[in-house]
Amino acid sequence: MVQRFYELTEDHRILNPFRPPALPTSFDELPLSSVMMIERQMNEEPTDWISRPSYFVSDRMKRLMEMVDEALLFKSVTFIDQRSGEQLGYWACHIPAVLALSDNSLFYPNGSIQHLLLQGEKVRDQRMFTLEGARGSGVIVRLDLAESMLRRGLSGFVLRKVDLE
């Protein structure tokens, strides 16, 4: 059976998504649980998936990701709005990078990917990963995870089919 994969990218239809600050350290140096004070903007919409400036997921999305791939690593980050005291709980996640970009992928002159093509044999056992050495690509998820995310009504992302060679 041929596996199918999708690129998980930010949903730009959300006009005012919650944007947390960048993590103060690398994921490896981040404690298992941390608190960050923030100044939240008016009407920011919390989503289940945040890809910038770091990968953050909601509790619902974390539970799903853990069911599908036990090797993914998560660390708790609570954001507290200094003005209102409102707390937003997220999980920073470390998604493994895989060297699977095909030489037949097409690139724009600036080096970002125009048409993504993966090496099928290198991603066969992967469920969720980033592409090592690929500028401008999102997270890649296998079809079963993509379907589970859609069934649960998770927000903050769009899925785009990725071709295999």
Helices, strands, pairings?
Layout: E1 5-10, E2 33-38, E3 49-50, E4 56-57, H1 59-68, E5 73-81, E6 87-94, E7 97-98, E8 106-107, E9 113-115, E10 117-118, H2 120-123, E11 128-131, E12 139-142, H3 143-151, E13 157-164
Parallel strand pairs: 2-5, 7-11, 10-13
Antiparallel strand pairs: 1-12, 1-13, 3-4, 4-6, 5-6, 8-9, 11-12
In short:
The chain has 165 residues and is mainly beta. Helix content is 14%, strand content 35%. The chain has helices at 59-68, 120-123, 143-151; strands spanning 5-10, 33-38, 49-50, 56-57, 73-81, 87-94, 97-98, 106-107, 113-115, 117-118, 128-131, 139-142, 157-164.
Written description of the protein model:
With 165 residues, the chain is mostly beta strands. It has one domain (5-164). The chain has helices at residues 59-68, 120-123, 143-151; strands spanning 5-10, 33-38, 49-50, 56-57, 73-81, 87-94, 97-98, 106-107, 113-115, 117-118, 128-131, 139-142, 157-164. The strands form three sheets. Strands 7-11-12-1-13-10 form a six-stranded mixed sheet. Strands 2-5-6-4-3 form a five-stranded mixed sheet. A two-stranded antiparallel sheet has the order 8-9. A hairpin with a 5-residue loop joins β5 and β6 (87-94). α1 packs antiparallel against α3. The two termini are 14 Å apart.
